[in-house]
Specification:
By secondary structure, the protein is an alpha/beta fold. It is built from 16 helices and 8 strands.
């Protein structure tokens, strides 16, 4: 069990006080009725989530004739109608800001407290390994991973896991020296499979067909896995027979460029903190391709990896959750390379967002599922609203700021920007302290919360438009730093890689 020392507690208390100060500043800047209603919606959301979790725990087979999240949605609408009728506020700017502020309050009052609870109760996962440790198969799909596959397999071969580990590299029709580089690795734990190019999902399914272990780990070929990671992943998988999948903790391998530092903030605040929070409910929303753990039984029940979306990791996670399995998070660490140019970042995030939209729309019937559980009632509705709806008011809010500038309302404009940035800064500082990350990243929050966020929102809107219009959704691959040569071919029309 992780024990917080006095310094940890003082830091977290200081950040909490600072966050309350930011909320108080918002009360001063905005109409107080707007802030109160947003806070009320967030509190109702918290009550709703606790109630849903309690129902699932006590009555696991409970069902409802209407979507349970609809109750919260209707309550929020009624609160905003009350705001309109009673306060006399008719300015649409206030309502746009209120919508965005509701999601901010959700992060501050729901995600961050749960992330703190998860961190406070976390322990060394590997200490729970059974004796003897069960055999594990590690699948490494690889397409044109020259200069990467070697170091990835070598990091896996250094594992301290006491049980049998079979490392299976699946060369998915590479046209470079991936196969030869893998062959040059001297490890009795590794074997190599070759197949025609069919995409990452087909490579993973091919690997599953050629292994027999019940416990499966998947690792991207451009990743480096910590020596104790396999043990921690297995320990979390066997913690309960209800656990069907486990998500590893992703960290960036390098943070030298400006973009890499912004992405570090994104991984810590926008990805890992949510993974911590949803782990409390046993419904982590994405098992990352960098490092994921699965029971073979869960994968087979889910039908294996599907090729009808661009994010096979998100899609298989949703399928496993839909079949009633828990998906948990582990502190097992994997290091991955992040795009260091804006072009590479755009290509990577466009694929991620396209795949996310495809998966959410594919499984949209989850919103109307009769069962009451943490996935259908909390995690999936939040993913739908935050991924598909939040970019719209976010961009409208940007227009509001431009409008305030044009009418020369400079004092109100500056106060509004400062209050939101302070709230975002203290929330990120809270997460950095939880993850023992360097606090120097806090200096990049203003750019992360503005330009970076709007960049992602624009990419999301583009992805939504392309999916809606059935555009050609080709696999867009970020340029690799170690392969960046004039003659390097990192993306092919017919090939699909990582």
């Amino acid at each position: 069990m992780r024990r917080e020392n006095a310094t940890d507690r003082r830091q977290l208390i200081a950040v909490s006080i600072a966050t309350i100060f930011s909320l108080t500043l918002l009360l001063y800047v905005l109409d107080w009725q707007v802030v109160i209603v947003c806070a009320a919606v967030a509190v109702l959301g918290f009550i709703y989530q606790v109630g849903t979790a309690t129902i699932q725990e006590r009555w696991p087979r409970a069902t409802t004739p209407i979507p349970v999240w609809g109750v919260l949605f209707i309550a929020g609408i009624l609160l905003f109608m009350y705001l309109y009728a009673v306060s006399g506020i008719r300015n649409p700017v206030s309502y746009v800001l209120a919508y965005a502020l509701t999601f901010v309050f959700f992060d501050v009052w729901f995600v961050l407290p749960l992330a703190w609870l998860h961190a406070a109760e976390s322990h060394d996962d590997s200490s729970a390994l059974p004796d003897p440790a069960p055999p594990v198969a590690v699948l490494v799909p690889a397409y044109n991973e020259e200069q990467y596959i070697g170091r990835c397999v070598e990091s896996l071969a250094k594992t301290t896991y006491p049980g049998e580990v079979e490392i299976v590299v699946i060369d998915d029709g590479s046209t470079d020296g991936t196969y030869e580089e893998a062959l040059a690795i001297d490890s009795d734990r590794m074997r190599i499979l070759q197949k025609e190019n069919g995409g990452k999902f087909s490579a993973l399914n091919y690997g599953l067909e050629h292994t027999t272990a019940e416990l499966i780990l998947t690792v991207d070929a451009d990743s480096l896995v910590a020596e104790d990671a396999i043990g921690k992943m297995v320990a979390k998988l066997v913690e309960s027979p209800d656990v069907g999948a486990v998500a590893g903790t992703v960290r960036l391998l390098t943070r030298e460029s400006f973009l890499e530092k912004l992405q570090s903030l994104e991984y810590v605040f926008g990805i890992n903190s949510f993974r911590r929070a949803f782990d409390i409910w046993g419904a982590v929303n994405v098992v990352p391709g960098c490092l994921g753990g699965f029971r073979r039984t869960a994968l087979e029940e889910a039908g294996g990896y599907a090729g009808d979306t661009l994010t096979e990791d998100f899609e298989i996670t949703v399928q496993i959750l839909r079949h009633g399995w828990q998906v948990r998070a582990s502190n097992a660490t994997v290091y991955t390379e992040a795009p260091d140019t804006l072009r590479s970042l755009y290509k990577q995030r466009l694929r991620w967002r396209r795949g996310t939209v495809q998966t959410l729309l594919k499984h949209r019937d989850v919103l109307f599922a009769p069962q009451i559980d943490n996935f259908t009632s909390i995690v999936y509705p939040y993913m739908m609203f935050s991924r598909l709806l939040l970019p719209f008011p976010s961009l409208v809010a940007l227009g509001v700021l431009v409008h305030l500038y044009l009418i020369e309302a400079y004092v109100f404009l500056v106060a509004l920007i400062v209050s939101f940035l302070l709230l975002q800064t203290f929330a990120i500082l809270f997460v950095l302290l939880l993850d023992d990350e360097t606090l120097l990243l806090i200096g990049f929050v203003p750019i992360y919360a503005t330009f970076f966020k709007y960049f992602i929102d624009i990419v999301t809107l583009k992805a939504m438009f392309e999916v809606a219009t059935l555009s050609d959704l080709s696999w867009t691959t970020a340029d690799r730093q170690r392969q960046r040569q004039p003659t390097a071919q990192t993306e092919q029309t017919g090939g699909r890689g990582d």
